[in-house]
Amino acid sequence: MSTHTDKLPYFLGFDARSKDAYRSIIDQTVQAVTDSVTDTGAYKGASVEELQNLMEAATILPQQGCGWEAVLDEVKRTILPNFLRTWSTNYMAHLHSPALLESIASELILSTFNQSMDSWDQSPIATEVEVAVVSELCKLYRLGDDADGVFTSGGSQSNLSALTFARDWYCNTVLGHDVKKKGLPSCYQKLRLYTSEVSHFSMEKSAHLLGLGYDAVRKVPVDNLCRMDVNALKAMLAEDTEQGLLPFCVVATIGTTDYGSVDPVDTLRELCDRYNIYLHADAAYGSGVQMSSTYQDRLGNLGLCDSITVDFHKMFLLPISCGAILIKDRSLFEVFTLHADYLNREEDEEAGYTNLVGKSLQTTRRFDALKVWMAFQCRGKDGFASIIDTCIENAAYLAQAISSNDRFELAIAPELSSVVFRLKGSCEKNKQVRRELLHHHQVVIGQTVYQGRTYLKFTLLNPMVTHQHLDELLVLIEKLGNLIQ
């Protein structure tokens, strides 16, 4: 029986028919996307119930396919109008950036060719691109000649990788125990990881997955700028060591999720050396600031760290997903190395073929390095510096505007591009203002808790945001606050 799907080739190939179909589908999709952008809003405002009703009415898996044209029509009707528009200057809720145009083009290329980054024979040029990009990143962050890295899905996977390196390094070098072969040592319940009380929740997740549990994570108090309190850490390390516990890693957060605060890596390096423990930098947020000659010093010397989490789908403005874990000592990747006859044969590697599966938690993996390769060449370091500088300076401007308005309270002065503040009054008022902006004004901002009270948050990753627009949003928030009792 013939169906609509018979008319559509399966893949792009060398024949004219498949090339025409590929070109037509891409062209029609581009037209549909651009036609859907009719205003500057970040979200059309549909409620949870409205979107759920749309999906309940849809037939997800019909007995017979309805064909490309019908599917595109349904996408235009139900999906495109209800997308969040990350490029809108009214979107500033999360560390969730707009995507640079050249990186969208790279997504088309890497999805079309669908390389798998586990073995060289599945990704020949893609492997060499990733190796070259990682080498450049290691130079950018001053990690030294023995450094290496691999691309990841983002900060959580990078942090899990880093804490695996830290655990195994400590067990091997300090305890003389090979976790890879023998599992956790008998004293595993004594292992302790130190991170600030406002660090990313992937620390607890990673501790769980590594068999250490949440109790292994020691949350260090922060100072009045939400940076790790080094004196508190010193006291905790001394106390824990005296009690026979085993500190194995400190995580410096280089840009906390809510506040953009930066822990002092230089001082933390000294402490880690004193106690012979691993120092990891979770720079998922702040890593992009390394591009800025003006603000780079705010990060400290990340080259002092044993590993660094880098995210490109935050301040670098690349599409999700795109991250990397960089390490100072490439030999630590032995943690993930395991040979399979069908995949990363030892004789191939001895002959010079690079099989990246030996450096990754993942086996099948996307060619995300292409996005970085294309964007870096397209914009250059100066281009990224301009983006970063604009966002940091917008945050400083907004913080000053908030501080000079007695209707608002500022949580802390921003170090990067996040501004946490509130309308004076009840927590409920601030919650209602955020919902009103989301559903009735096409403005999407964040919400968090600071010192036990509800605060609003602007995460400024879009260099197209102007000071005038920030002023207008503050006026709107103040107006909405006046209407809520």
From TrEMBL:
<dbReference type="Pfam" id="PF00282">
    <property type="entry name" value="Pyridoxal_deC"/>
</dbReference>
<comment type="similarity">
    <text>Belongs to the group II decarboxylase family.</text>
</comment>
<keyword id="KW-0663">Pyridoxal phosphate</keyword>
<dbReference type="InterPro" id="IPR015424">
    <property type="entry name" value="PyrdxlP-dep_Trfase"/>
</dbReference>
<dbReference type="InterPro" id="IPR021115">
    <property type="entry name" value="Pyridoxal-P_BS"/>
</dbReference>
<keyword id="KW-0210">Decarboxylase</keyword>
<dbReference type="InterPro" id="IPR002129">
    <property type="entry name" value="PyrdxlP-dep_de-COase"/>
</dbReference>
<keyword id="KW-0456">Lyase</keyword>
<keyword id="KW-0808">Transferase</keyword>
<dbReference type="GO" id="GO:0008483">
    <property type="term" value="F:transaminase activity"/>
</dbReference>
<protein>
    <submittedName>
        <fullName>Aspartate aminotransferase family protein</fullName>
    </submittedName>
</protein>
<dbReference type="InterPro" id="IPR015421">
    <property type="entry name" value="PyrdxlP-dep_Trfase_major"/>
</dbReference>
<keyword id="KW-0032">Aminotransferase</keyword>
<dbReference type="InterPro" id="IPR010977">
    <property type="entry name" value="Aromatic_deC"/>
</dbReference>
